[in-house]
Design brief:
- There is one protein chain.
- By secondary structure, this protein is α+β, with helices and mostly antiparallel strands.
- The chain has one domain: Cytochrome P450 (Cytochrome p450, Orthogonal Bundle), CATH 1.10.630.
- 46% of the residues lie in helices and 10% in strands.
- Strands 1-2-10-7-3 form a 5-stranded mixed sheet, covered by helices on one side. Strands 4-14-11 form a 3-stranded antiparallel sheet.
- Helix 7 (137-147) packs across helix 8.
- It is globular.
- The structure holds protoporphyrin IX containing FE.
- Protoporphyrin IX containing FE (HEM) binds at residues 56, 64, 80-81, 92, 223-224, 227-228, 231-232, 235, 273-274, 276, 301, 328-330, 334, 336-338, 341-342.
C-alpha cells in the first residue's frame, strides 16, 4: 500500500545575517512526521529523535554521497563527510587515531592559556562581543596548534578562517581556496618531514596500504578544519546567551565547576547546531512518510534533541538530567570526529569564563543577527559590572 504524500511545507534552509532566531524558527516544525519542502530543489525534513537516529545509523539506505542540493555540488568532496562505507572507514581510519580523547588531553594547557588571554583582553572593560571576541577566536587558535601549522602560517590561516566566517559568499570562496592552498602546501612538506601532529598523520595516512592521494589528504584535512569552524563557536555563543539569562545556572557553574561536565552536554543537546543531509538510495518509509530513491533529506538534529518522546521537559536546561543520550555529534558511522576536542574546549571555556566573569547580561539595545545552516549567532553583545 502506498502512502499519500502530504502537502509540502515551506522551510528555509540557509541564510546568513537573518534577524530571527533559527532555533525559534525550527521549533515551529517540531515533532512532526518527515515532511516535504520544495526549497532548494526539494527535500524531506526530519525532526523526530527516533527518525533521526534511524537515518544516521543506516548509511546503506541514507547515503552521504551527493547529499547537497542540486547546484551546490563541490569541486572536491568534503571527506569523510561525503562518503559511504567501505571508503568511509578507510578515510576515518586516517583521522581517528589523532583525534581520540588521549590525543586531545595534552592540549588543555594551551586551551587555558588562550582562553585566559582572550578573557583578560576584555574582562576589565565590562563588555564584549562574546562571539567575535571569544567564541570564534578561541577554537581557531587551538585548532591551528593541534593541526600542526608552523608559526608563520598560523596567523595567515587564522585570518582566512575569520574571513571565511565573517564575510560574503564571494570572500568566503577566496578564503576557502586559500585555506586549501595552505593545507596542500603543508601536507606536501609534512610528507617528507612529518611531526607529531594531525596534519602529519593525514599527510602520511594510507588507504589499502598505499599513501593516500594528495587530493584525498587535502580534502580530509580541510574537512576536519571546517567541521569545527562554525560548530564550536556557535555552541559557546548559545551557551553563554542562555546562561546570561539564567543566573541560577550561571552561579552553579561558578560555585561548582564539576557540574560543567554535565552542563556542556545539556547545552550540546538544547542547542544542537549541526544538521546533516542524506540522499535516499531506495524507496523507503520513515516515520509514516514515503521517501523515494534519489530524494534528499535534511535532518534537524536541532529538533531531534528537543523531542519530548526522548527527553522529558526538553526545553528545560537541567544539569542533573539523567540519560542525556543526545545526538548533537550525530550517530552511526559518521559520528563527529571532533567531539573530544569540542567537549574539552567547551569545558575549559565555560570554567575560565565564569571564574573571571561570573555575572553578565545581554546588552538590550544591540540587535543580534543569526545564521541558518550551522545555527549560529553572528554577534552576542554582553556586559557586566567592573
Ligand atoms: C560543538 C561542536 C560540534 C558539533 C555540534 C559537531 C557536530 C557534528 C555532526 C552532527 C557530525 C555528523 C555529520 C553527519 O552525520 O553527516 C559531525 C561530523 C564531523 N565533525 Fe563535528 N561537530 C563539532 C565539532 C567538531 C570539531 C571541533 C571538529 C574538528 C576538530 C569536527 C570535525 C568533524 C568531522 C571531520 C566530521 C565528519 C565525520 C564523518 O563524516 O565521518 N567537529 N560533527
Amino acid at each position: 500500500m502506498s502512502i499519500a504524500k502530504p502537502p509540502a511545507r515551506e522551510f528555509e534552509e540557509g541564510g546568513s545575517f537573518v534577524e530571527d532566531d533559527p532555533f525559534v524558527y525550527h521549533a515551529g516544525f517540531s515533532e512532526s512526521a518527515p515532511f516535504w519542502t520544495e526549497a532548494d530543489g526539494g527535500a524531506w525534513v526530519v525532526t523526530r529523535f527516533a527518525d533521526t537516529r534511524r537515518i544516521l545509523q543506516d548509511p546503506g539506505t541514507f547515503s552521504s554521497v551527493n547529499q547537497t542540493p542540486e547546484g551546490y555540488e563541490m569541486e572536491q568532496p568534503l571527506l569523510p563527510s561525503f562518503s559511504d562505507p567501505p571508503e568511509l572507514q578507510k578515510y576515518r581510519g586516517i583521522l581517528l587515531p589523532s583525534m581520540t580523547s588521549a590525543k586531545v588531553a595534552p592540549l588543555e594547557e594551551n586551551m587555558r592559556v588562550v582562553c585566559k588571554e582572550l578573557i583578560d583582553s576584555f574582562a576589565s572593560s565590562g563588555h564584549c562581543d562574546a562571539v567575535a571576541d571569544f567564541a570564534r577566536k578561541y577554537p581557531i587558535a587551538i585548532f591551528t596548534a593541534f593541526f600542526g601549522l608552523p608559526q608563520g602560517r598560523s596567523e595567515e590561516f587564522r585570518q582566512c578562517a575569520h574571513t571565511y566566517l565573517h564575510n560574503s559568499p564571494a570572500e568566503r570562496e577566496v578564503a576557502w581556496d586559500r585555506i586549501r592552498g595552505i593545507v596542500r602546501e603543508q601536507i606536501e612538506l609534512k610528507r617528507s618531514d612529518p611531526a607529531e601532529d594531525l596534519l602529519s598523520a593525514i599527510a602520511t595516512g594510507t588507504i589499502d596500504g598505499e599513501l593516500a592521494e594528495l587530493d584525498v589528504a587535502v580534502n580530509l584535512a580541510s574537512t576536519v578544519f571546517l567541521g569545527g569552524l562554525d560548530t564550536l563557536p556557535s555552541n559557546i555563543g548559545w551557551s553563554l546567551r542562555y546562561l546570561a539569562d539564567h543566573p541560577d545556572l550561571r552561579h552553579r557553574i561558578a560555585a561548582e565547576p564539576t557540574v560543567i561536565h554535565s552542563a556542556i552536554e545539556e547545552f550540546l543537546r538544547r542547542f544542537s547546531v549541526a544538521n546533516p543531509q542524506r540522499r535516499v538510495t531506495k524507496d523507503i518509509e520513515v516515520g509514516g512518510s514515503q521517501m523515494h530513491k534519489g530524494d534528499r533529506i535534511k535532518i534537524l538534529i536541532s529538533n531531534a534533541n528537543r523531542d519530548s518522546a526522548e527527553f522529558p521537559d526538553p526545553m528545560v536546561v537541567d544539569f542533573d538530567r539523567s540519560n542525556n543520550r543526545h545526538v548533537a555529534f550525530g550517530a552511526g558511522p559518521h559520528r563527529c570526529l571532533g567531539s573530544h576536542l569540542a567537549r574539552h574546549e567547551l569545558e575549559v571555556g565555560l570554567e575560565l569564563w565564569h571564574e573571571a566573569i561570573p555575572d553578565y547580561r545581554v546588552v538590550q539595545d544591540e540587535p543580534i543577527l543569526y545564521h541558518r545552516g550551522v545555527l549560529a549567532m553572528e554577534n552576542l553583545p554582553l556586559e557586566w559590572e567592573v
